[in-house]
Specification:
Layout lengths: L1 H17 L3 H12 L4 H6 L7 H40 L5 H8 L9 H15 L3 E2 L5 E3 H4 L25 E3 L5 H8 L5 E10 L11 E11 L4 H16 L5 E5 L5 E12 L9 E12 L1 H6 L8 E8 H9 L12 H4 L6
Parallel strand pairs: 1-4
Antiparallel strand pairs: 2-3, 4-5, 5-9, 6-7, 7-8, 8-9
This protein binds phenylalanine (PHE).
């Protein structure tokens, strides 16, 4: 039996050498160490072996299995590398530039921390089945206000100071909730999507206010959606971002496009500092159940469907994550600041 096992291994190695496709490698693997593979076949006669023989055969077969696994892994990697190299050779990209950039003493750039966090959050939502939508920066009154249950004379228009164009019909979007409207109009429920992007407010700037900042809108519409669903997705998101379970609380919050509306706060303690004044609740995520008027404006029957929406402030999140005390650093263009966030 021991000899047979050696034969199987030798045979395996010869066959493996000639393979060039990953699928073939995998089928060779299962033909040898699979449930019905040749090794299992041999081990069937183990029952006829003497106890001494068994003592040798057991460890030997484990060793062979391990060696085979190792060889398979190496072969799969080798094939993958070959494929990638072949693709690169075909492509028109000139990789020799990378070296000359170094020779010139130049440094490769990196992503801005807001872009980094935006991508990270998009990935989290994509993994939970959300689409990622985009929308224009220049909007009209309908998408920014009217469809979101903020009619012409509504005082809530004053909540967001707006950059209007001269025609007084177009504006720079004040929030990414405009993407809710476009998203609803372009799909049939059930659906769920996020929409990240820049938003603009005609405000005096200070340590916590910028005229241009970033939000990530989220919307889920379907049948019988509850506040419980909303909390679940928000907690999952926060857990992924902060790499631990976050304690959250919901407070009532007013936004014309949600009813009920909430402010979701996280329990926050500045790392390194003791409890005391640096701990507490931090307002992070306005959200709520989509108002029936908003669903109607998006062409959805509120008798049949409902949903939740949220608007996450990305700059705020970056500030919390990296403990940045002034939002204006983010867009200062100061390389000394930006360089600290190089992803590589
Ligand atoms: N659009 C709101 C704002 O910018 C945030 C929000 C989005 C609130 C979605 C509730 C639901 O202030």
């Amino acid at each position: 039996m021991l000899q047979k096992m050696d034969e199987i291994f030798d045979d395996f190695q010869t066959k493996l050498q000639n393979l060039t496709k990953q699928a073939d490698v995998l089928s060779l693997k299962s033909s040898v160490i699979g449930k019905k593979g040749s090794l299992a076949e041999i081990l069937k006669s183990l029952k006829d072996a003497t106890p001494e023989q068994r003592k040798e055969i057991g460890p030997k077969s484990n060793q062979i299995k391990q060696d085979i696994e190792k060889n398979i892994m190496a072969k799969l990697q080798e094939i993958e590398l070959k494929e990638v190299n072949a693709k690169l050779a075909e492509s028109k990209l000139d990789f020799s530039l990378v070296d000359s950039v170094k020779d010139l003493g130049l440094q490769a750039g990196g992503l801005h921390p807001v872009s980094q966090i935006q991508r990270e959050i998009e990935d989290i939502f994509v993994s939970m089945g959300f689409d990622v939508l985009d929308g224009p920066h220049i909007e009209d009154d309908f998408h920014n206000f009217e469809a979101l249950n903020i009619p012409d004379t509504h005082p809530a228009r004053d909540m967001q100071d707006t950059f209007w164009f001269k025609d007084m019909e177009h504006l720079l979007r004040t929030h990414t909730s405009t993407i809710q409207v476009r998203g609803m109009q372009s799909r049939k429920p059930p659906f769920k999507f996020v929409g990240p992007g820049k938003v603009f407010r005609c405000e005096r700037t200070d340590a916590t206010h910028e005229m241009c900042f970033h939000q990530l809108e989220g919307m889920m519409v379907g049948k019988d959606i509850t506040v419980g669903n909303l909390i679940y997705f928000m907690k999952t998101l926060l857990k992924e971002i902060f790499k631990k379970d976050m304690e959250v609380r919901l407070r009532p919050g007013y936004f014309p496009f949600v009813e009920p509306g909430f402010e979701l706060d996280i329990r926050w303690k500045k790392p390194g500092k003791g409890e005391s004044k640096h701990s507490g609740w931090l307002e992070l995520l306005p959200c709520g159940m989509v108002h029936p008027n908003v669903l109607r404006a998006g062409g959805i029957d509120p008798e049949e469907y409902n949903g939740f929406a949220f608007g996450l402030g990305l700059d705020r999140l970056v500030m919390v994550k990296y403990m940045i005390e002034d939002i204006r650093h983010l867009h200062s263009g100061d390389l000394r600041f930006n360089k600290q966030f190089k992803a590589y």
